[in-house]
UniProtKB/TrEMBL annotation:
It comes from the Bacteria. Pfam families: Chorismate_bind. PANTHER family: ISOCHORISMATE SYNTHASE ENTC (PTHR42839). It is an enzyme of class 5 (isomerase). Residues 96-354 form the Chorismate-utilising enzyme C-terminal domain. Its EC number is 5.4.4.2. It catalyses: chorismate = isochorismate. It comes from Gordonia sesuvii. The lineage of its organism: Bacteria, Bacillati, Actinomycetota, Actinomycetes, Mycobacteriales. This is isochorismate synthase. Residues 74-94 are annotated as: Disordered. Belongs to the isochorismate synthase family.
Length: 367
């Protein structure tokens, strides 16, 4: 596989407020996170980029690139190319998703679990075909942080497919001993009317249901980071942050690693999947998701990079699409956290609002 790539080919791009990191060329490939972590720890590879799956038993798409150039600026944004969807199939259909939410609320009421994130997928065929750098720039253009990523998962899977997205949610960033996380959970669709939009943000900040949905993620990260870190700084109240399509509750977490040999990839594998994409307790939520959803593949995992010093950044793999070799067929997903107080129709509407991130970047009229 590696031989068909030149040393200057981008196989990974991550853009955001911290700048742009690229993975260039393919030194080695890994479909297993443990093997990639071991190669990095032994010094046999100098960096790892790519995607880890939602379900740790599924294949990862990780590459040891030939080089890992970084620029201080995020990607230059661009406007989407106009496209039409020649086929659009919801999996499951919206009514079934709502029924699944109703079922999950009942299981939460029965005490089986506290939170589960249920997702739905949409399979789309677009015309004209997608150009990967063009779509990446359009994804960066859809949010003020210029968040966007593109991962050549075909370099590992051998199917010439790409994973692209614009995730606002930072699973973790490691710089030396300093670890920062920025969990997102709790959402409200945005409005084109500025008065309605501001009111939606205020209502989100005051919503007990969204605060509780958010708290599960923050508590999980605190519990997982506590044995690994000192000076854990976890604000008690989340902030409200916008993407192009939705308002979110977000909490900036900061901590200091006790053991500097723990890498950003080690942390990504220890933390993912958080209750922002899975649920609480993790095992019960993962079991319920396995029972009712199709396998998620790379959606709900993490996308990022890690260098030889252990520094790196991993984003939660949401607001994304998996683009096929024909550059026309793709699957996109959106999920939402279900807690005891969730309303099934609101949850369906929330997934529709989240899907607009990808549809807008594809230039599809999503109204
Ligand atoms: C699971 C997704 O979003 C997560 C991140 C932010 C807000 C979320 C929510 O409010 O449910 C989700 O936890 C998704 O976009 O597919």
């Amino acid at each position: 596989m590696a031989s068909s790539y030149g040393a200057d080919d981008d196989v990974f791009v991550l853009s955001g407020p911290h700048g742009t990191v690229r993975g260039r060329g393919v030194g080695r490939t890994f479909d297993d996170v443990t093997a990639a972590r071991a190669a990095l720890a032994s010094g046999s590879v100098r960096a790892i980029t790519g995607a880890i799956p939602f379900d740790p038993s599924d294949p990862a798409a990780l590459v040891a690139p030939i080089s890992l150039p970084a620029e201080p600026a995020p990607l230059a944004p661009s406007s989407p190319v106009r496209r039409r969807a020649t086929s659009m199939i919801a999996r499951p259909d919206p009514r079934t998703h709502r029924d699944r939410v109703i079922g999950a609320i009942k299981r939460i009421a029965d005490g089986e679990l506290d939170k589960v994130v249920l997702a739905r997928a949409v399979d789309i065929v677009v015309e004209p075909a997608v150009d990967v750098p063009e779509l990446l720039a359009a994804l960066a253009g859809g949010n003020s942080d210029r968040n966007a990523f593109a991962v050549d998962v075909g370099a590992v899977f051998g199917d010439d497919s790409w994973l692209l997205g614009a995730s606002p949610e930072m699973l973790l960033r490691r710089r030396g001993r300093v670890v920062t996380c920025r969990p997102y959970a709790g959402s409200a669709p945005r409005s084109a009317d500025p008065t309605v939009d501001r009111a939606a943000a205020r209502a989100l900040a005051a919503s007990h249901k969204d605060q509780s949905e958010h708290r599960f993620v923050v508590d999980y990260l605190r519990d997982r980071l506590a044995p690994l870190c000192s000076d854990l700084d976890v604000p008690s109240t989340p902030e409200v942050h916008p993407t192009g399509e939705v308002w979110h509750l977000a909490t900036p977490i900061r901590a200091t690693l006790r053991d500097p040999s723990i890498t950003a990839l080690d942390l990504a594998s220890a933390l993912s999947p958080t209750p922002a994409v899975c649920g609480t307790p993790t095992d019960a939520a993962a079991q319920l998701i396995r029972e009712i959803e199709e396998p998620r593949g790379l959606y709900g995992g993490a996308v990022g990079w890690c260098d030889a010093s252990g520094d790196g950044q991993w984003m939660v793999t949401i607001r994304c699409l998996h683009l096929g070799a024909d550059r026309r067929s793709l699957r996109t997903w959106a999920g939402g956290g279900i807690v005891a107080q969730s309303d099934p129709q609101d949850e369906l509407d929330e997934t529709t609002a989240k899907l607009a991130t990808v549809l807008r970047a594809l230039g599809i009229d999503h109204a």
